[in-house]
Amino acid sequence: MTTSGGTLVLAPGYEEPGPVRPPDPYARLFRIPGARAFTAGNLIARLPMGMFSVSAVIMIAGARGSYALAGAVTATGLAATAVVAPWTARLVDRHGQARVTVPATLVAVLGELALLLCVRHGAPDWTLFAAYAATATIPNTGGMSRARWAHLLKGDPAALHTANAFEQAADELCFMLGPVLAALLCSALFPEAGTLAGAVLLLTGVLLFAAQRGTEPPVSAPAPGRSRSPLRTPGMAPMLAVFLATGAVFGAMEVVTIAFADGPVAGPVLALQAAGSCVAGLVYGRARRRAGLRTCLAAMTALMTLPLLAATTAGSLLALAGGLLVAGMATAPTMVTGMSLIQRLTPADRLNEGMTLAVTALLGGIAAGSAAGGWTVEHVGAAYGYAIPVAAAALALTTAGMTKARQP
User: Among the CATH numbers 1.25.40.10, 3.90.980.10, 1.10.150.530, 1.20.1250.20, which is that of 36-217?
Assistant: First the structure.
């Protein structure tokens, strides 16, 4: 580059440098040493979470001819998980992820295999309940992954926001693919194939995840005196109530959509909601400005009216599919924001327990929403069953006004 008579002359082959692009926030995450390895293990371990209940229903109903029995067994497992999971998470906080996760997973895998054998060999019905209850020790690997990001990205709230958004998108992806994979294995191979594959994936993923000791957060020394339970933290109870109501949105939506579609197309239609949430989560993770919890819940309440309008007005499955896709886009931002608040409210030495309590509340809401959705479908009709997710989202929005936690 030279000047001639005050005029700038570019040398041959010289090109003006283009605008510098900011680094991709997700690429920055996975440049952290060990991040790719623990994420790979975590994704493998989380995929079975969307497989086990579907596989159990197909396996038990096919062998015993009773969907009522299959539903009761899976409900028992859900109730047992709600009781056991916070205790497992407390042990993780006290002794470390690897020391607790591997033995807890072995117990859960043995429970899945025991269920498979009991069904296959015609054991009494009570053994199915006992075997599936043993699977309640499945560790909350999603919560542990978020705890690792919180440790690795301490002091960088923007990067932590991106990591939490990625984890939520991963949740949606696993719960979108898991049921499809389970149904495919059980129908294409043999009824027990979904349970068996899920057990293998869970054990493999947890072993890989636990082996990444370099990214494992150290065990936090408890605060002087007795460490305070996350439940006693101001603002935590209302936040758990928000997660309970949000879970009811998901549980009701699933049951009502299955009833409305009434056929094999129900799975793909439901997957659209998860797909919308997954995409929205990844986009939200790139956002520099973050919405508050009440804003996210208000958006979710408004968007949940779209499936209701599609079902009651158009009555078209195609319109419903579009409504679910758009409605799902409010899910991930709501969950990311809610989990971020749970992280802020929870004492550092009880982080896994706090996040597991949120997941437990979510599971309880799913169970309640499923029951409410089923009752509404049976007594009012599938189309009007979509009023339950709208009401549950509105309840979550109202409850959020009771917490004083604020998004940074």
Answer: 1.20.1250.20
